[in-house]
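In response to the reviewer comment on reproducibility (Comment 2.3), we provide here a single inverse folding case reported in full, input and output, so that an independent group could reproduce the run without further information from us. The structure tokens appear first.
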């Protein structure tokens, strides 16, 4: 075989390959670029994690801030339920019991979390790291799909710009908010769906991606809903053909949005009703307009190689210097319609102003002001900027590099550099981020210059080489940015999380194996995370989440536990025996030592390493009978916890005896403080010394048969450090009241012994107020109280996440108090008949029960779940029906068109645009000539869909060297 024959055979083989199924799938359908757009950011992120020793590459982990306290513990519970088959509707592993569907709708509803079941026990954190990297990869993959369809391009350039979106500064600063990134990844897919809807009337991609976005995370999905309005306005102006077509697409948009929301209703309705129980429901819109940041700083922050905002700071808008460079080309270059430019500028302006204006920021964040982590929708700015940059690059590839393009590339970077310099003022130095950004911008510009002046044989060769060299430079930029992001967000020790896990797990295992009681609660005497029960896997009281029931938070605050309504948290640290019994806390775990208090109520039963397990000698069941007087108890916000508990005991038991008795101060000593008393337990201090802090020490006499408890509050943070002693034993010490007032035990002291409390002022306050109240609890009175309630407990026979059954023998008519947070989703059946439920203590579940023995059945279904599931099924049925009806309609139209042709006795020349268009218009079939992205001379013209199809089928001549062959 000679040389020419070999060439002919190679050409024939290549032709067959191009006509083959594999080529069509990988190249024409864009699967290859989809895969690459996933793998590149996925690999870059894993590389950055590996560089900082994140497990399994080292001994670090990604758990920081709320990922440490909230997201990972909830993720662990999700995996546990997936493995064990537990219900996703309710969880007892935090917050006394929680509407778990509502909680995970924000924190852990990601479908990718199901992958965690393939990671073994103990590999949950590795699973979370892998899933996070996968979400970032999918952000790139779906952005590539958006670019490929919207601009009709199939080459490696879409991978390059997909990385710009996937690894924008929003991702690198906020990736520790792992639950947001499903919807961030799905966002380009939803926007692609809108373009498809406006261009061809294809609505299913938008409907399904919107539904997935809302299901995965309704909060960020809400951002998608808002921006969809702007995206539709822009796409409809660019894509729709006339007013009639615009109205048709508008109705289609409304229908698709309704179906998308309807498909997610099974998650959204319970989440809505759950949110109504939280503190966030009380927000109000600001009345006056104000702006947060200096505009120069905001746009100067578009530099690459900068530390992204992690918790507080400027909006994370940056998505690489190439995007900034090409923005000038997008705005001023010929070949892009004015309407495209205006739409992009308006969308960028809306996002920028919304980040900086208080009212718009409030609306974007779900009519709520965020607690840190500002501008949570800023990724949309990067989306628009990266898409605009790609559009400009598309023009360059199609038309070739023009001299004025090279000039336009300098405008936006120069503006960013100048704004950065002005915003820094006298602190400006040409180093760090600005120096590196200038270098990479210069490198990009020189690549364009080289591509312009170098004599390539064909335009296609020029484009390919230029794209790969730019991609190499761009990927190096994002590798550095990813490392800066990981360094900024920081890491924590892998082996030290959770603290003393093996010891605690051994104690919990012993507890489960030796206590076959269907239900009881356990708590820690000190916090490690703010959701330790979810982290270690026991039924507990503590909770820190946006889904925290604000009524329960308020009750815990009244009882003297750590609690903050605005902080969405309540958690256990220390308390009184009354609270332990009331909330069915049967076991306490003390890590790193032993309890030096409450031997009379807490029995030491097991030690593992440095941790000890204690059993409450006075446990109560989840439910017990109380007096109907409890319904008359007022929620007194002014009473201290001891007086509140005194009132509580009187209303629960009809016992009018004084329960907690206030104790006088035996001795007061001051070091560096002048203190005046303003009534029992209320003090004002002043530090007139040169020392940063001062202290007040109060001594109390112990009493035979009684045990003393204290309550302290450093108003406004004026005092934060406590040291509690009984004799020589230190009961507790540290910044115990840094944020919230608490009740604490003061030892086992009896007559002849003393307990002391030393309260230290904060160095930032020279004057201020503090409270310190000490009360004594007589043992025999507490035992009488306990015995009164223990005689009429709910004896639980069966217990699951959602269903509880048991028996109770009520001595007289009264109220069955259930230590379950009140929700309308709870139903109580007494002897098979449903009973009316109501709030007890403004927070807990209660039901009236008559005297005698009764069978009790308690069941839970989240409020809104049943109608939500119904709406979801109806929406799914409508999607199927509409899809079927549209398919049948298309078939009938084609048959009708063919019949008309036969009757006319002529064949329609499909190569003739006007004849074809007339038939498409007559029968409402979408045109194949949907436009965007094809540039000739100085105007944008309709994209010739038919010619492209013929060309791809091998029926057209190849393009000249002066036009880009798209594949």
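Designed residues, in position order:
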């Amino acid at each position: 075989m000679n040389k020419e024959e070999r060439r002919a055979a190679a050409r024939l083989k290549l032709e067959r390959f191009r006509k083959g199924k594999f080529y069509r799938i990988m190249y024409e359908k864009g699967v290859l670029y989809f895969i690459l757009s996933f793998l590149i950011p996925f690999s870059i992120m894993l590389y950055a994690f590996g560089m900082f020793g994140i497990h399994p590459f080292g001994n670090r982990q990604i758990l920081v801030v709320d990922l440490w306290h909230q997201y990972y513990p909830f993720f662990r519970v999700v995996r546990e339920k997936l493995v064990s088959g537990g219900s996703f509707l309710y969880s007892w592993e935090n917050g006394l019991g929680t509407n778990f569907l509502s909680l995970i709708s924000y924190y852990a509803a990601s479908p990718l979390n199901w992958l965690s079941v393939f990671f073994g026990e103990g590999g949950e954190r590795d699973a979370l790291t892998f899933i996070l990297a996968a979400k970032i990869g999918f952000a790139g993959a779906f952005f590539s799909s958006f670019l490929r369809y919207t601009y009709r391009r199939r080459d490696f350039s879409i991978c390059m710009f997909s990385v710009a979106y996937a690894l924008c500064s929003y991702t690198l600063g906020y990736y520790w908010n792992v639950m947001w990134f499903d919807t961030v990844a799905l966002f380009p897919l939803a926007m692609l769906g809108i373009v498809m809807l406006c261009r061809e009337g294809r609505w299913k991609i938008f409907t399904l991606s919107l539904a997935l976005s809302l299901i995965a995370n309704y909060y960020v999905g809400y951002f998608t809903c808002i921006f969809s309005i702007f995206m539709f306005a822009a796409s409809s102006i660019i894509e729709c053909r006339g007013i009639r077509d615009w109205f048709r697409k508008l109705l289609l948009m409304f229908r698709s949005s309704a179906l998308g929301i309807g498909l997610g209703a099974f998650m959204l309705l319970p989440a809505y009703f759950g949110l109504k129980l939280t503190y966030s429901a009380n927000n109000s819109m600001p009345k006056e307009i104000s702006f947060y940041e200096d505009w120069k700083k905001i746009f100067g922050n578009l530099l690459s190689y900068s530390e992204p905002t992690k918790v507080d700071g400027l909006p994370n808008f940056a998505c690489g210097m190439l995007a900034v460079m090409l923005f000038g080309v997008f705005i001023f270059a010929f070949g892009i319609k004015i309407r495209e430019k205006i739409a992009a500028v308006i969308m960028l302006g809306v996002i920028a102003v919304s980040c900086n204006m208080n009212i718009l920021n409030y609306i974007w964040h779900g009519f709520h002001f965020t607690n840190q982590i500002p501008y949570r929708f800023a990724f949309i700015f990067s989306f628009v900027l990266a898409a605009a940059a790609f559009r400009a690059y598309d023009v360059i590839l199609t038309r070739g590099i023009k001299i004025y393009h090279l000039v336009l590339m300098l405008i936006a970077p120069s503006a960013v550099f100048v704004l950065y310099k002005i915003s820094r003022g006298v602190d400006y130095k040409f180093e760090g981020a600005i120096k590196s950004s200038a270098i990479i911008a210069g490198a990009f510009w020189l690549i364009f210059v080289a591509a312009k002046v170098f004599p390539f044989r064909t335009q296609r060769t020029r484009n390919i080489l230029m794209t790969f060299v730019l991609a190499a430079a761009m990927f190096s930029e994002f590798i550095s940015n990813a490392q800066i992001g990981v360094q900024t967000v920081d890491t924590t020790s892998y082996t030290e999380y959770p603290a003393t896990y093996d010891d605690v797990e051994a104690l919990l295992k012993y507890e489960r194996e030796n206590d076959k009681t269907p239900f009881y609660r356990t708590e820690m005497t000190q916090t490690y995370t703010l959701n330790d029960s979810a982290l270690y896997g026991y039924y507990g009281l503590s909770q820190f989440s946006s889904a925290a029931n604000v009524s329960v938070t308020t009750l815990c605050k009244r009882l003297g536990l750590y609690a903050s309504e605005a902080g969405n948290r309540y958690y256990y640290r220390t308390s009184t025996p009354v609270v332990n019994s009331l909330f069915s806390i049967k076991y306490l775990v003390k890590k790193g030592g032993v309890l030096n208090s409450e031997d009379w109520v807490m029995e030491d039963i097991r030690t593992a390493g440095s941790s000890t397990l204690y059993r409450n000698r006075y446990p109560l069941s989840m439910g017990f009978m109380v007096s109907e007087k409890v319904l008359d108890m007022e929620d007194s916000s002014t009473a201290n916890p001891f007086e509140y508990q005194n009132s509580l005991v009187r209303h629960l038991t009809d016992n009018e005896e004084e329960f907690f008795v206030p104790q006088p101060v035996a001795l007061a000593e001051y070091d560096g403080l002048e203190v005046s008393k303003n009534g029992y337990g209320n003090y004002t201090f002043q530090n007139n010394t040169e020392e940063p802090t001062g202290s007040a020490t109060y001594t109390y006499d112990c009493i035979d048969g009684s045990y003393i408890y204290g309550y302290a509050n450093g108003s406004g943070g004026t005092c934060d450090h406590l040291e509690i002693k009984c004799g020589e034993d230190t009961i507790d010490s540290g910044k115990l009241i840094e944020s919230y007032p608490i009740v604490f035990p003061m030892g086992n002291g009896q007559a002849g012994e003393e307990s002391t409390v030393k309260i230290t002022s904060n160095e930032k306050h020279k004057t201020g107020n503090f409270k310190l109240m000490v009360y004594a609890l007589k043992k025999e009175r507490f035992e009488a109280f306990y015995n009164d309630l223990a005689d009429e407990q709910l004896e639980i026979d069966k217990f699951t996440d959602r269903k509880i059954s048991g028996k109770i023998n009520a001595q007289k008519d009264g109220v069955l108090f259930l230590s379950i947070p009140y929700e309308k989703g709870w139903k109580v059946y007494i002897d098979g008949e449903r009973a009316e439920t109501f709030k007890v203590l403004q927070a807990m579940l209660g039901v009236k029960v008559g005297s005698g023995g009764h069978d009790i059945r308690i069941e839970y279904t989240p409020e809104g779940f049943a109608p939500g599931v119904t709406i979801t099924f109806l929406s799914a049925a409508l999607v199927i029906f509409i899809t079927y009806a549209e398919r049948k309609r298309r078939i009938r139209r084609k048959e009708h068109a063919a019949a008309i042709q036969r009757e006319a006795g002529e064949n329609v020349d499909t190569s003739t645009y006007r004849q074809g268009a007339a038939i498409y218009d007559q029968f409402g079939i979408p045109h194949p000539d949907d436009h965007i992205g094809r540039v000739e001379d100085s105007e944008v013209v309709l994209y010739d869909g038919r010619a492209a199809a013929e060309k791809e089928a091998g029926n057209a001549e190849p393009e000249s060297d002066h036009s880009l062959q798209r594949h």
